[in-house]
């Protein structure tokens, strides 16, 4: 998003913009680099002294200038055929494993669906909101989605622990999709451990199901390795599978052998054929 907005900013000023070619590095007047995750590798040719680097994975305090942030993205940079954007920023929670509260603060309204839906040839909108129902005007955004009969991906997941009956019905009323847009699926998360959390997950699951979303249309991000052990990780994964939901395991430490193995076992659907005690990827034990 940041690079696409920068592309529009420069093109509007008559500059030529292209994706970086290392062999032509000396020919550029300016190079921008975006690092979204801390675990993302920085190529050897990235030079902080010669390039402008931003993104959550590099520095939480670096942000686009207001005159760039307000622009529509230049989708031609990546030839992306759909629409991407935020209807809100921030989050109601302060989870210790997440940088969003520090970076963006409490939930605030950002763009309308009309602001984001600029590629009218596509009826698919990908929302990057970290807490869609935390948006004070979420009902207006749902109304816009319904009005234009759009397909929508809540790509960062919705908080099923505190979803209300009204919000569950609103979710069921729209054409929700996964990130690719090919599957009717909505993502939630079960990141924390504890009986209180499990009770909220169960209640939210029943609330969403009662609204008309079927279990196989629900997928859960499951964070492992932050403050949980193997038994607690497997319990959440197996319970969600037993409920009929998809599970995507997210390792907190991608270099940890156990977390790498469990992620691969689940995310590649090996759990269907190989019991976890018999799985020996990398001989992590």
Report on the structure:
The chain is α/β, with parallel strands linked by helices. It folds into three domains: 1-74, no CATH class; 81-156; 178-285. It has helices at residues 2-11, 66-69, 100-104, 113-116, 138-147, 165-172, 195-211, 230-242, 257-267, and strands at residues 32-34, 52-54, 83-85, 88-89, 108-109, 124-127, 151-154, 175-176, 186-189, 218-224, 246-251. The strands form four sheets. Strands 3-6-7-8 form a four-stranded parallel beta sheet, with no helix packed on it. Strands 9-10-11 form a three-stranded parallel beta sheet. A two-stranded parallel sheet has the order 1-2. α7 links the parallel β9 and β10 (218-224). α6 packs across α7 (195-211). The longest helix is centred in the last third of the chain and has 17 residues, at 195-211. It is globular. The two termini are 40 Å apart.
Characteristic key phrases:
3 domains; three-stranded parallel sheet; 11 strands
Number of helices: 9
Sheet with most strands: 4 strands, parallel
Give the overall average pLDDT: 94
Task: Give start-end ranges of low-pLDDT stretches.
Answer: none
Number of strands: 11
Gyration radius, rounded: 21 Å
Q: Please, how many domains?
A: 3
Shape: globular
Judged by helices, strands and strand pairing, the structural class is alpha/beta
Topology:
Blueprint: H1 2-11, E1 32-34, E2 52-54, H2 66-69, E3 83-85, E4 88-89, H3 100-104, E5 108-109, H4 113-116, E6 124-127, H5 138-147, E7 151-154, H6 165-172, E8 175-176, E9 186-189, H7 195-211, E10 218-224, H8 230-242, E11 246-251, H9 257-267
Helix pairs in contact: 6-7
